[in-house]
Amino acid sequence: MNPKRILIIQLRRVGDVVFTLPVIGALRRQFPSAQIDFLVEKPGDQMVRLHPEINNTLVYDSSRPLRWLREIRSKKYDWVLDFHSNGRTLMLSAASGASVRAGFKGPISRQIVYTHSVPTTTDKYLPEQKLDILRALGVPCGGWTWGLRIPKEESLWAEQFLRESGVIPGEILIGLAPATRRPIRAWREERFAEVAEKLISESSKILFLYGPGEIDLIRQVKNGIKNGSTEKVIIPPEISLLKLAALIQKCGAVVAVDNGPKNMAVALDVPTITLSGPTNPLSFDPFEDPRHLVLRDSKLHCISCGTNLCAYKHECMDNISVDQVLRGLNELTAPLKISKAAV
């Protein structure tokens, strides 16, 4: 029997929420009249709101767990799809009373709660892994899309902000997203500054992309730019994820370490260059997509270690050169330059 009410659970981490969004479109195609809700914490709820096919975005409040157990139970979901798979979401899944409770394989607690489960892997893009849960339930997922849509209000805001920042319509704007909360994923600040300096010398404008608490790093990178006009460097104020997404969509390409803005750019169909070392690009990047380049030293024995502490000298990130980034950007932006020259 086709489900009438479906709940998707992915509580936190902006990147993980982004990776879950293709599930919405696949469900909507298969069950056009179903109610599809998404349970998520702030600020990830803003990313869910970018998908036009969702019915209700439920913003989870961790300070009221019992209230949410009752709330989920009262909604009488037919399917609960738990992509978070931790202790809290297992309790929510169990409390739902749904006839189908699906998630990833793991400890015995998951075996008790879930009616359907699929294994995880390290050699498949994370959205595909999440879609495997749907496939296990008989939902076809071929030709999936991100399906995101920037709200008109945020799109107009981004246009006005960039116009007031001196960006001319049709001008190629390069986004730089250097921040990461995991130091092992970081690329040297002075190298981001070198990339910006070179792009400025070639008449590009730079837009820094960042989240809460990361402005000091952005200023340090800007202050490291030499022999270039800082008038071509744009640092927006701390803004909502919706506005950040609207700015990202205006970029010709985004250069980033493995972080939230990079994942947002991929989902918004903006070309990306990812500086990758400890993370596995098969899991975190559309690895064979020519619009999304991954720069890494694949010869290192410790590449893609998946740890948070480097046992060596951070060679995986240090071996990525400024010239590699610039060559990648030239490759990604060449069609834009040709289009601009033809106008």
Please tell me about this protein's structure.
Helix content is 40%, strand content 15%. The longest helix is centred in the C-terminal third of the chain and has 21 residues. It has 2 domains: 132 residues, Rossmann fold (3-Layer(aba) Sandwich), CATH 3.40.50.2000; 190 residues, Glycogen Phosphorylase B (Rossmann fold). Helix 8 crosses helix 11. The mean pLDDT is 93. The strands form 2 sheets. Strands 3-2-1-4-5-6 form a 6-stranded parallel β-sheet, sandwiched between helices. The protein has a 6-stranded parallel β-sheet with strand order 9-8-7-10-11-12, with helices on both faces. The chain starts with a strand and ends with a helix. The chain is α/β, with parallel strands linked by helices.
Kindly report how far apart the N and C termini lie. Answer: 55 Å
Kindly give the count of domains.
Answer: 2
The gross shape turns out to be globular
**For the residues shown, what is the average pLDDT?**
93
Provide the spatial order of strands within the biggest beta sheet: 3-2-1-4-5-6
CATH topology group of the largest domain? Rossmann fold
Per CATH, the architecture of the largest domain is 3-Layer(aba) Sandwich
Rg, Cα atoms, Å: 21 Å
SSE string, helix = H, strand = E? EHHEHEHEHEHEHHEHEHEHEHEHEHH
- CATH superfamily membership of the largest domain, which one? Glycogen Phosphorylase B
Q: Proportion of β residues?
A: 5-15%
Number of strands: 12
Number of helices: 15
